[in-house]
Amino acid sequence: MARVQVELPSLLAAATGGQRSLEIEADTLEEALRVLVTQHPRLKGHVFDERGELRQHVLCFLNETNTRWIEDHGRAVKDGDRIVLLQAVSGG
Amino acid sequence: MKVSVLVGTVKGGFLFRSDENRKKWTVEGPLFKGWKVTAATRASDGKYVAATANFVYGLAIHRSPDLVEWTQVPCSPELPEGQDFKLNEVWTMTAADNRVYAGVDEAAMFESEDQGEHWSFAPGLTNHPSRDKWFPGFGGLCAHSLLVDPKNHDRLWCGISAVGVFRSEDRGESWSCKNEGIPMIIEDQEHKDIGFCVHAIAQDPDDPQLMYRQDHKGMFRSKNGGDLWEKNEEGLPSGFGFPLAQDHTTKALFAVPLQSDEYRMPIDGALKVYRSQDGGDSWQGMSKGLPQEHAYMGVLRKAMAVDHLDPCGVFIGTTAGTVHYSADGGDTWGDLPGVFPRILTVQAFVED
């Protein structure tokens, strides 16, 4: 399994006991996100909506790529990959 | 004896603390920085429970032994699959026995059987046959008020904005509408028992049949648990307002009338809290120490609290971010230190 680094915004630190940088093990992007909310279940409702999709204003990047642009979430991840969660709010 | 006042704003919570004299206050915070603090209560185990919400990340419930150190609970409210409405934020929480109930937006109820640690959806309210005709008012479609009969914990009341008051006799399994005597705001073609805009409800702790209701259409009282409501506005400059609270010691009622639903501002720019010392038969305005010139802020429905000491403390948080309080049952008022973001909720807690 690949060891993937996950970076969280400060607003979600309360859901992970204060951690903003986590390491998880997974083979694919889909599995990595599933493992993230399994190991840190308080994150689930903040990241995913009722349908199990990313909340509308949550941005998720795998390295430099917005995961919404990745058609195959079964794609393999590798050691050192980074998943970064951000808020996608712009404007006033 | 310690008095703590938790002020929930759109950008975090702030905690005021004092002794029973309530003259010198400390302020701490922001707690939950960046999160709306939308509701709080004390569970029967003595721990505090608070609800937070964020436009991006949804909601969460937290517990604390002291109102300062908070831990997000393992299982916050979450809608089961198949619901055709959204869960936006918690508007109110109330505790009885080991249970904590939460009213949420969009209007629904959740319950916890372990003092707020784990939550589950309570479908009884949204199973009401009128549910598909509920629609949001200016404040959203929110279940903003939940009361538990202090003498019969199976009996609950729920207030839903732009829908009305519901009562359950079976701890939330089933509900019936309780709005007789209240003017309707919008009539539904099929369901004639909804379309009422309750803003706040209060209940006499010793006589749970005696209830009070700040409604969009005025101030009302019921002597039979909500079966029939009668208008009680003598002395009020306007029947329109949002918060309503009752001191459990003297039974005094407190309200903050505003100028009509069109304007929703203190009348003539003078912020006044009105008090009734005769169960709503008459109301008197109190202004000594409150801003009386160019004061056009509002006080939201959950932003007033009493501490039930004798004389009782009364605390109001405004949409302008100021907190005003009385330590003498409303006779005179002062300001708590600081100016905060828009204040959503104010809760007062007393500890020995």
Give the arrangement of secondary structure elements:
The complex is a heterodimer of chains A (92) and B (352).
Chain A: E1 2-7, E2 21-26, H1 29-39, H2 44-47, E3 58-62, E4 65-66, E5 82-87
Parallel strand pairs in A: 1-5
Antiparallel strand pairs in A: 1-2, 3-4, 3-5
Chain B: E1 2-9, E2 12-19, E3 26-31, E4 36-42, E5 48-54, E6 58-64, E7 71-72, E8 89-96, E9 99-105, E10 108-112, E11 120-122, E12 143-148, E13 156-160, E14 164-168, E15 176-177, E16 198-203, E17 211-215, E18 218-222, E19 230-231, E20 241-246, E21 253-257, H1 260-263, E22 273-276, E23 284-286, E24 304-306, E25 314-317, E26 323-326, E27 334-335, E28 343-351
Antiparallel strand pairs in B: 1-2, 1-28, 2-3, 4-5, 5-6, 6-7, 8-9, 9-10, 10-11, 12-13, 13-14, 14-15, 16-17, 17-18, 18-19, 20-21, 21-22, 22-23, 24-25, 25-26, 26-27
Q: What's the short version?
A:
The complex is a heterodimer of chains A (92) and B (352). Chain A has 92 residues and is α+β, with helices and mostly antiparallel strands.
Report on this model:
The complex is a heterodimer of chains A (92) and B (352). Chain A has 92 residues and is of the alpha+beta class. Chain A has one domain (2-87): Ubiquitin-like (UB roll). Chain A contains two helices and five strands; from the N terminus they run ββααβββ. A five-stranded mixed sheet of chain A has the order 2-1-5-3-4, with helices on one face. The longest helix of chain A has 11 residues, at 29-39. With 352 residues, chain B is mostly beta strands. Chain B has one domain (2-351): Methylamine Dehydrogenase, Chain H (7 Propeller). Helices cover 1% and strands 41% of the residues of chain B. Chain B has one helix and 28 strands. Chain B has one helix at 260-263, and strands spanning 2-9, 12-19, 26-31, 36-42, 48-54, 58-64, 71-72, 89-96, 99-105, 108-112, 120-122, 143-148, 156-160, 164-168, 176-177, 198-203, 211-215, 218-222, 230-231, 241-246, 253-257, 273-276, 284-286, 304-306, 314-317, 323-326, 334-335, 343-351. Chain B has a four-stranded antiparallel sheet with strand order 3-2-1-28, with no helix packed on it. In chain B, strands 4-5-6-7 form a four-stranded antiparallel sheet, with no helix packed on it. Chain B is globular, with a radius of gyration of 19 Å. The mean pLDDT of chain B is 97. The interface between A and B is medium-sized, with 19 and 24 residues.
